[in-house]
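pinging the channel bc i need a second pair of eyes. not urgent but kinda urgent?? the chain im working w is below, pasted from the shared doc
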Amino acid sequence: MLSSRNRFLLLFGLFFFTTLLASHAQREIYADSIAFKDRLYYGGNFGMQFGTITLVDVSPLVGVMITERYSAGVGITYQYFNDRRFVGGSSSTYGGRIFNRFNVLPNIFIHGELETINFDYFNRAENRFQRIWSNALFLGGGYFAPFGGGRGGANFTFLYNILHDNLRSPYGEPYVIRVGFVF
C-alpha cells in the first residue's frame, strides 16, 4: 500500500511525463559514421549549501551514445557534510555508479543505475559510527530539456531504489529526484 506522500510522488511523475512530451531532433548514431569521441557526453550534478549545515556534492559522469536511442556510462560521487551543531559532525561520502539509459521518445528516457556508496553508518548495536558500503539499484525515468541546438541540456530524473534499506542506506527514502546537466 502506498502512503499518501508516495502516491503524490507517483502522480506527480505521471503528470510530468504526460505533459512534457516536446520533441527535438536527435543526431543519428551509426558505428561507422560518428567517431567514438563525438558520441561521448559529459555532465553530472553539483550542489552546495552553506551555514550551520554545510553540504557540497560533486557527481560528474561520462556517457557514450551506443545507438541513437541507447547510452551507457559511469560516474563518481563525492559529498562533504558538516553539521556545526555537533562536535565531530562532519563526514564524507563517496562512491561510483554505472548507468544505462534508453530514449523512449526524443526527450523522455528510462534509466537504470547501479550505485555503490561508502558513508558513515551509525551502528546502533555498537553505539558508534563506522564506514560501510551501501548498494543501490535505481530504476526510473526522466525528461531531457535541450539547450539551444547542441547536445547540451538538463536532465530531470525520477528514480526508485529497489534495494533500499532504511537502516543501512545513505538515502532517507527509496525515491531520488535528480537534476543534472550534460554537454
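so The helical segments are 4-19, 36-39. and The longest strand covers residues 128-146. — does that match what u expected or am i reading it wrong
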